[in-house]
Write a structure and sequence with these properties.
Elements lengths: L4 E5 L4 H12 L3 E6 L2 H15 L4 E5 L5 H14 L5 E4 L18 H16 L1 H5 L5 E5 L22 H22 L4 E6 L7 H4 L1 H7 L10 H13 L5 E4 L13 H18 L7
Parallel strand pairs: 1-2, 1-4, 2-3, 4-5, 5-6, 6-7
Bound molecules: NADP nicotinamide-adenine-dinucleotide phosphate.
NADP nicotinamide-adenine-dinucleotide phosphate binds next to helix 1, strand 2 and helix 4.
Amino acid sequence: MKGQDIVVTGGTDGIGKAAAIRLAKLGGCLLLIGRNPDKGEAAVAEIKRTSGNDAVVYLQGDLSLVKNVRHAAAQIRETFDRLDVLVHCAGNIFPRQRTLTADGLELSFAIQFMARFILTDQLLDLLRAAPAPQVLSVAGGGTIAGRVDFDNLQGEKSYGFTQVIKTTSRACDLLTFEQIARYPDITFYNYGPGLVRSGQIVKNPLMRALMNTVGRPFSRSAEQAGDDIVALLRSPRSSGFYVKSAKPNDVPESADPASCKRMWEYGEAVVAKASGRRAPQ
Ligand SMILES: NC(=O)c1ccc[n+]([C@@H]2O[C@H](COP(=O)([O-])OP(=O)(O)OC[C@H]3O[C@@H](n4cnc5c(N)ncnc54)[C@H](OP(=O)(O)O)[C@@H]3O)[C@@H](O)[C@H]2O)c1
């Protein structure tokens, strides 16, 4: 990874930070994105200290808004003239109540799907300027993700923790399928880390206690997930789905081309609406 230009969204905490530390140790030039600037600067300082690599910068941005994702893409262009690796890890937001962003999007869907859709699209030419570009999305994991109900993608009909996790994960699965089909010159990984002791799971004191006791054998550390991510990126594999390892897994069920195309067009329509344009026909 030495000298490779790498963006890690959500690289300031949890799985993203664990991956960033490892990538910095291998000599990558890193740009990390997160919302909280104090946390971001602290993460950069920690990564520099533990890796001995000073090529780590932080970009503040709330990627749940379309205009912010575009702004982040513009900032990335100012930092790098090519992009070897894009890791989508920002997310893990599943509010109890259905919450809408200023774009009118359900918050988890906005960050877990739309940000990934738009940022990858905006950085395609930068990725193509790299000799072997790779895009890795940390998602729910294809084999466990469930089905997408296109009428309830943003919890319009019913909203709940499980529903939103399954829906956003599955939407990411379909996105990966479509990206693999559309952009064969770029390697796309959809990586499911399993149940990880990070993010919302450990912010809740009861869950933290459970995860560190009876739940420990069934869960993994952020560092283990970071190891998988680096194993994938370090010796490039074929595009596809990887769950809890750097070995390819069975593709998710029911990823028919029509659903992948529909998911893609849904993303395009959201972008067009946020830009005040008509959706492509
Ligand atoms: N933990 C699990 O068991 C698990 C399982 C499957 C998949 N995943 C997925 O893995 C990813 C990382 O999860 P994690 O457990 O490592 O979460 P985490 O520890 O909470 O870290 C989330 C990261 O995303 C950033 N972030 C969150 N919302 C953002 C926004 N709107 N704009 C920009 N950055 C944002 C956070 O930075 P700020 O706090 O500064 O915003 C932080 O750096 C998520 O997409 C999650 O869905 C996690």
